[in-house]
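Protocol step 4 of 5: obtain the predicted structure for the target chain.
Materials: sequence only (see below). No template structures provided, no constraints applied. The aim of this step is simply to have a reference model before the mutagenesis design in step 5. Sequence pasted as it appears in the construct record:
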Amino acid sequence: MAGSFSSINTALTALRYQQVALDVASTNVANVGTDGYVRRRVVGETLGAASSPAVWSRSHETSSGVQATRVDRMTDTLLDSRVRREHSRQTYLDARTEALARVETGLAEPGPAGVAAALSDLRATLNDLGNAPGSDAARSQALSAAATVVDTVRLQAAHLSDEASDQRAHLLASVVEANSVATELAATNRTIAAALGGGSDTTTLMDERDALALRLAELTGARGTVRDDGSMYVELGGQPLVDGSAAAQLVVTGGVGADGSATGGPVSFALDPDTTGATTALTSALGGDLGATVDVLDDALPSYIAGLSAVAKDLADHVNAQHQLGYDANGVAGGKLFDYDPADVLGTFGVVITDASQLAVSALPGGVRDGNNATALAAAVDVDDQYQRLVNGFGSTVASARQMAANQQALTDQVDSAREQLTGVSLDEETVNMISAQRAYEAAARVMTTLDSVLDTLINRTGLVR
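Step 4 output (structure tokens):
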């Protein structure tokens, strides 16, 4: 309806719309530091004549005001998907680099407390013993150096074992967290569906949904897709992890026991879609934090442990072979200096001889004071290059992991920056929006005041003669 009364309604809709704009702007400002918050923008729609006029009639409406049709979250579905993907890769590389760096620190190489230094000391003391075969002190020093080699090798093995144990415990904790996040995401999907059906605002729920999906991606490398109904569909290894209000559970099926112990074989997972135990094996490798943990447990640590076992075994074999060619202080043929169980080299590696006089220093029988076999034993300590290749290879792996993590960080930062420009709250921009809404509200209120004056004149003063 045209006229003054219609104008009052127009001004009223303007007041209501600008009030909503002020509310949205103030909400953005209030959440400027809230993690996962996506800034909002009110979308208005002009109210005008009917879009489908009746037959034989036409509208004389010139304007009917404005209304707030919805409040949009400033997001981009493609950009959100890319953020989840890049964060999954970043988490994988960071977690792998962190674990490998801890192992590298435990190697104590290069340094005076490492295996390389112990091997060098053993070789030096054996050479000294070759120069003074009759010295009891030189014999004791050589035997002590052999024990030091064993201790440093076994200490390094203990560090590796501790890291593997920590990684298994971390894996189980990550699985529990992933299952909890998946359950929360399914519940959020259900709440979003109910809220949309009732016409309620779902922007806060969608913020929570996106944050949960991002965390799942960081934990497992799962891929999420937003459906038309606002729910997040998440798949892991080609299988549904979260589908609507239903969430499957990730189960460890091999490699790690429920108590965190190693059960042998590679780590494997399955999904239990209904928590009944009817699991479906995951054939694709996981990503994110869990993927990095599996990589460390199945590849990095076993590879280095195998290399260290080979160094200890070769050292023992070479030295024992030479030791058995010599004679001790009593003229008795030498036996083994080192011993180990082939089934567990690092766990059983040790020095057999407990009496320094049993060191087969002499190359001649009959108790002759001869140091030629000691010199030969020093030459038999020939695993330095083998050990150096092992350490250098692991160091190269760590350096490569750091480089890849740094390169990925540059890409992740770029994607995060692009998303922050879209979703982040700018206090300057919100200030401008609030001032604009304030001025528009004041103008609409002024229109209302003017119309009130017009109507007062029309109703109370029209026709008065003075």
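Step 4 remarks: The longest strand covers residues 262-272. The radius of gyration is 38 Å.
Proceed to step 5.
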